[in-house]
Each structure stands twice: as structure tokens, then as C-alpha cells.
Prior knowledge:
- This protein has seven helices and ten strands.
- It is an alpha/beta fold.
- Strands 6-7-8-3-9-10 form a six-stranded mixed β-sheet, sandwiched between helices. Strands 2-1-4-5 form a four-stranded antiparallel β-sheet, with helices on one face.
Amino acid sequence: MEKVIELKNITKIYLTGKVEFAALKSVNLTVNRGDFTAIMGHSGSGKSTCMNILGCLDRPTSGEYIFEGEDVSKLSDSQLAEVRNKKIGFVFQSFNLLARTSAVQNVELPLVYSGAKNRRQKAEEALASVGLAEKFANKPNELSGGQQQRVAIARALVNDPPLILADEPTGNLDSKSGEEIMKIFKALNDKGKTIVLITHEPDIAAFAKKRVYFKDGEIIKTEGE
């Protein structure tokens, strides 16, 4: 299997005053191309710290993070920003859409940053792929929570990144909308997209093929493939 992500003995230590706190302790994790992995754990378990490192939003204190064959833990800030823009599609709990901007313009943003051509066409295709072909011109306040999250998913997909990283993507949604969003993720995974999902909800994690449980900064159990 081709590896997209490989964490090797990842440790993350935060310093609060003179007190050190180990948020991650020698974590080892592999995600292969086409995997759908849920990272689970209660608040303080280390799952959010792990997500920040996976998303190149933070650096490990020690260890290696191999992403698509490259040790990204050694990259400069500008190089990490490029990896985030071109290789990782982010979906957050709070949607993170620009309020005064239409759905299609929100989806275009990663393409603007990467200097891509045919931006409008690609953004419209991404929105259509998540069932929002009739909502191109709508602003976020004209959309339901579930529709806003679909816009966020379209934005994550528009650069066709090798990894989709979803952080509590159903946290602000009712159960019906949450299930619809998870069905979209499952359909994307069925088409070969690699997805890592951060959640504390077992019914949401059940959509994933593999579940990785964190506690006190360590992986304590893995279920599934």
C-alpha cells in the first residue's frame, strides 16, 4: 500500500512557564492512500495536537512526519504553507467561510492562492459534486448549516489534494445534516480520496474504515483495517 502519512515517534511538548506538558508521546501512525481514518479521544487526549501536526499547522518537538514521501517536519514556514494549500483540504467544525462572499467565490480561494487557471469552472464543478449546483451565488447566511459545510467540503476538494483533513466536521450540525455530510465523505472515500477525520462521536467515527483512539497523548487502540 502507498503511504500518504507516516508519523514516526512524534512527540509534542508545550512549555507553560517552567512546566513541560507532553501533548503527544512517541506517536506512530500510518495512513495509506484511500484510507478513511477516524482519530478519536476525549478533550485533552492529544487528538487535536495530532491534527495540527498532520495539517502542517504545527511542528512536532521530535520525531518525523513523512507526508507523500517527504519529511515535512523539517520544512520552512513558507514550504509548509505551500503543502497546506496544495496537498491538504481542510474541513473545520465552524465552516470558516467568508461571510460576504458567494459560495463559488469561497470555493475559489485555494485556487487563487495557488495561481490556478479556470478557477470559476473548477469551483463550480466542486460545488456541483457536493449537490450545490443551484447555490453558486448564495452567501453563507443564505445557506443552512449543512449547506455551508458542503461549501467547505467543495473548497477542500477544489485543488484535488491527496488528503482531506476534517476536524469535527459535524460538530455544529443537527444529526440529520451531520449524517448527510458523513455520507458525502464516505462517497469521496469510495472514489479513492484519503480522509482523516477528527471526532469524539462514535456514531460519526463509525463511517470510517479505521478508528484510532488517543488517551493522554498516546494511541491506546486501533480498530478496523
